[in-house]
Write a structure and sequence with these properties.
heterodimer, A: 385 residues, alpha/beta, Aspartate Aminotransferase, domain 1, Aspartate Aminotransferase, domain 2, 2 domains, 7-stranded mixed sheet, 4-stranded antiparallel sheet, globular, B: 74 residues, alpha+beta, Alpha-Beta Plaits
């Protein structure tokens, strides 16, 4: 079995992740921060430790400005729906995932204007195009850090600079980059960082969160949910401080215990080492696929400018057919189709058929890449005949 | 602890746990306990510490920018 669908969910996880979750279930188990007894406090500590680990990874000064949720989608919805008001304009790119595009299209119905800045057919963005789209109503720029379709890295720091210059907020969707690319919210000038736990942070599904920077006025942030927080219990109104403002109801403590182990794994390995390995795998796959005449690769050709995601098609063959053959004939698991990102596929010219997407993690090997190239070559040969 | 202790009350559990970690990191002895019945607080747990450490704890809370509700001698 060769798992190349890490951009959907990473697998396998580091060996520390499962035991960390089991430890919570078997030895802690309680509701964090509600009850004041030792197990409740211990559960609260696990949440806090996870906040600290995430803070360390992204260089967040105050760990309490990280609010946890179930995934990047929830975090993006919180940032966009929580901050935008009728009359505001948002600028985004044409490489966005539906996790950004759909909340924005919903907001459009509520008189919030959306400008979608086109990217190149290779999936790259010129920051000047963002700056040229800013008008007097613009309040926020929402940007994918890297495309989940072709892996192209978008110029977050350059856009961050533009956002500061025009006094706008920058929200970054780091679903594909958190844990495999360096992210520093200070250096990259990111005001809102949405991340998911189950991809390159190597945690379980059902974990994620939003980093809320100092430039975001908490008084203007409406939470998606309100409810019990274990704080200000005498009040029937939501507390106005973080993280409680945006964390109502019992959290996914068991999942966040696993996320902490995943993030610690990333910190211990080092982002640079992870990134180098993934660039190496990406280069090997692109070079190998390039040798197959029937294969068309989408996106850029320089692995340094992308994450470990490679989209391709075999000429005159549907992606679904290639995916099925890879799985059934070779035990190779990848993702086919539109990858929840129709705008991105329109940008690279593969809408509505989509592509075959191979996405690697730190755990993939050269041998797995070589077997995949050979399998694609076999399929290309047979589909031709 | 010599039997004379104080408690510091916080707005949120997360802040209480953050304070516990930072104060313990400075080598002081503190314990998270449920808020005593005669006090009321925004969150259910508070930090108990020896009265002798009160000034040092105030300094840590201030320099680490941890917002707290109040300090009470018990």
């Amino acid at each position: 079995m060769i798992y190349l669908d890490n951009a959907a969910t990473s697998f396998p996880k580091p060996e520390e992740v499962g035991p960390a979750m089991l430890h919570f279930l078997e030895n802690v188990g309680a509701n964090p921060g509600r009850s004041g007894h030792r197990l409740s406090i211990e559960a609260g500590r696990i949440l806090y430790e996870t906040r600290e680990s995430v803070a360390e990874l992204f260089n967040v000064k105050d760990p309490l400005r990280i609010v946890f949720g179930i995934n990047a989608t929830e975090a993006i919805n919180l940032a966009l729906k929580g901050l935008l008001r009728p009359g505001n304009r948002v600028i985004t790119s044409s490489m966005e995932h539906n996790s950004v595009m759909r909340p924005l299209r919903e907001l459009e119905k509520k008189e919030i204007d959306i400008t979608v800045v086109p990217c190149s057919s290779q999936g790259f963005l010129d920051p000047k195009d963002i700056e040229n789209s800013i008008d007097k109503n613009t309040v926020l720029i929402a940007l994918n850090h890297a495309s989940n379709v072709v892996g192209s890295l978008l110029p977050v720091s350059a856009v961050g600079e533009i956002a500061r210059k025009h006094n706008l907020l920058l929200m970054v969707d780091a679903a594909q980059t958190a844990g495999c690319c360096p992210i520093d919210v200070e250096e990259n000038m990111i005001d809102l960082l949405a991340f998911t736990g189950h991809k390159s942070l190597y945690g379980p599904q059902g974990t994620g969160g939003l980093v809320i920077g100092e430039r975001v006025d908490i008084e203007q942030l409406n939470p998606l949910k309100t409810g019990g927080t274990g704080s200000k219990s005498e009040h029937e109104y939501q507390p106005r401080f973080l993280p409680d403002l945006c964390e109502s109801g019992t959290p996914n403590t068991v999942g966040l215990a696993g996320l902490d182990a995943g993030v610690q794994f990333v910190i211990k390995q080092g982002i640079d080492k992870i990134r180098r390995h993934e660039i190496d795998l990406t280069r090997r796959l692109i070079e190998g696929l390039n040798q197959i005449p029937e294969v068309i690769i989408y996106g850029g050709s320089e692995p340094e400018n992308q994450i470990a995601v490679v989209s391709f098609n075999i000429r005159d063959t549907f992606p679904s057919e290639v995916g099925l053959q890879l799985d059934e004939g070779y035990g190779i698991m990848c993702r086919i189709g539109l990858h929840c990102a129709p705008a991105a596929h329109k940008t690279i010219g593969t809408f509505p058929i989509g592509t075959v997407r191979c996405s690697m993690s730190y755990f993939n090997t050269h041998s797995e890449i070589d077997q995949t190239i050979k399998a694609v070559a076999d399929i290309a040969k047979t589909s031709k005949s | 602890m010599d039997g004379n202790f104080s408690v510091v009350l916080f707005y949120s559990t997360s802040a209480a746990i953050r304070a516990e970690k930072l104060i313990q990191g400075a080598g002081l002895n503190v314990k998270l306990i449920p808020v005593p019945r005669n006090l009321s607080s925004d969150c259910g747990i508070c930090l108990r510490f020896d009265n002798n450490d009160i000034e040092e704890i105030r300094t840590i809370l201030k320099t680490q920018e941890i917002e707290y509700d109040s300090i009470h001698q018990m």
